């Protein structure tokens, strides 16, 4: 398995990226984002620390070889297209087995079905895997240009942390993924993908169990909140609420079950939890999702 993982140091695996200074060494953020992610944001920088690139290719939904019993998806897709998504994800410690293809990930994704079984996408979030430094949670991206995972060791996350991420289209059609870290927006990657200026949006907690190692995977509930969508017409960002056409795969008024994992919508669809069914769900919700007149401003 180690032969499938290559260590990259220095250059970010980006197809196209704006000219930004390297992100300095910093601790996690102490406050919520106060302005939109992008090159014009105050202190914007690009990730340049050690990046582990993994060539592990697991068949995804809609790809040949997908095994339904291996994947458990909890979350939602937009029914229409948007120019971006942002929100906050809590970090937990899953019982992922070392030297396996197990993983748990909490992420946002932008994607387009190109037909004939081809899907183009960019995703960003945190993940814990059985093949890349097992037992540790890592900030990651995945894109269909390189078809690899990129794990960003520059950012140390631990169970109990909460991270803000933003994935959106820039004016030149490049899609970029940003992490709010050190109280500034850090560019993780920028990719020129065949998505156009808008795409379908996903928000998911995803669990994969190695088909070659049957067993139980425990995942404490992950909290996802403050989820916002960026319209394609340049209008203001808005919360992903139930007036947005949304696909969940089940009745959103009822608890969603998948392979022993449960999803509870606290506020459809911008605040929710997903993880083991038997655990008490967190109830803390950021004031920002309730009181902010401008969803890009701190509450």
DSSP E strands, number: 19
User: Which regions are unreliable across 5 or more consecutive residues at pLDDT < 50?
Assistant: 6-13, 61-69, 280-299
What overall geometry do the principal axes of the alpha carbons give? globular
Mean pLDDT: 85
Kindly estimate the percentage of residues that lie in beta strands according to DSSP: 35-45%
Q: Characterize the biggest β-sheet.
A: 10 strands, mixed
Find the structural class using helix and strand composition: mainly beta
Radius of gyration, in Å, reads 18 Å
Instruction: Tell me the number of helical segments per DSSP (H or I, 4 or more residues long).
Output: 1
Order of helices and strands: EEEEEEEEEEEEEEEEEEEH
Q: What's the N-to-C terminus distance?
A: 45 Å
Could you estimate the helical fraction of the residues in percent?
Answer: under 10%
Provide keyphrases for this structure.
ten-stranded mixed sheet; globular; mainly beta; 299 residues; single chain; disordered C terminus
Task: Give a written overview of the molecule.
This protein is mostly beta strands and 299 residues long. Helices cover 1% and strands 42% of the residues. The chain is built from one helix and 19 strands. It has one helix spanning 288-291, and strands at residues 5-8, 45-46, 51-54, 71-78, 84-90, 103-115, 118-129, 138-143, 148-156, 162-169, 175-181, 184-191, 200-208, 222-230, 238-239, 246-247, 256-258, 261-267, 271-276. Strands 2, 5, 10, 11, 12, 14, 15, 17, 18 and 19 form a ten-stranded mixed sheet that branches. Strands 1-3-9-8-7-6-13-4-16 form a nine-stranded antiparallel sheet, with no helix packed on it. A hairpin with a 2-residue loop joins strand 17 and strand 18 (261-267). The chain is globular, with a radius of gyration of 18 Å. It starts with a strand and ends in an 8-residue tail after the last helix. Mean pLDDT is 85; it is low at 6-13, 61-69 and 280-299.
